[in-house]
Specification:
The chain has 118 residues and is mainly beta. Helix content is 0%, strand content 53%.
């Protein structure tokens, strides 16, 4: 069973940086894509970034140029480096796992809170 554990959230001032981590277990690393999503109160969950099993990355327009997704193959850990944070980035951030031949994210972490003060 795939398990995902996020960490690294916290409170930061606007313009600051945070790095989120998503540690995965129970899967064959090279066969999965890992995505980051976020949800703030009263809003739908939204896509933030993904690193595909092939290594290709994609970002939401709202975070392009500010966020960077990467992975450590040996640790099966995916990172989300967030720079120049804005108050509108405040949300609970979740990582999720997608098997290479699936269209759905089948496993999700518990989430980590990111709060950006103005």
């Amino acid at each position: 069973q795939v398990q995902l554990v996020e960490s690294g959230g916290g409170l930061v001032q606007a313009g600051g940086s945070l790095r989120l981590s998503c540690a995965a277990s129970g899967r064959t690393f090279s066969s999965y894509s890992t995505g980051w999503f976020r949800q703030s109160p009263g809003k739908e969950r939204e896509f933030v970034a993904v690193i595909r099993w092939s290594g290709l990355t994609n970002y939401a327009d709202s975070v392009k140029g500010r966020f960077a997704i990467s992975r450590d193959n040996g640790k099966d850990t995916v990172y989300l480096q967030m720079n120049n944070l804005k108050p509108e980035d405040t949300a609970v951030y979740y990582c999720a796992s997608q098997y290479m031949y699936s269209s759905d994210y089948s496993d999700w972490g518990q989430g980590t809170q990111v709060t950006v003060s103005s």
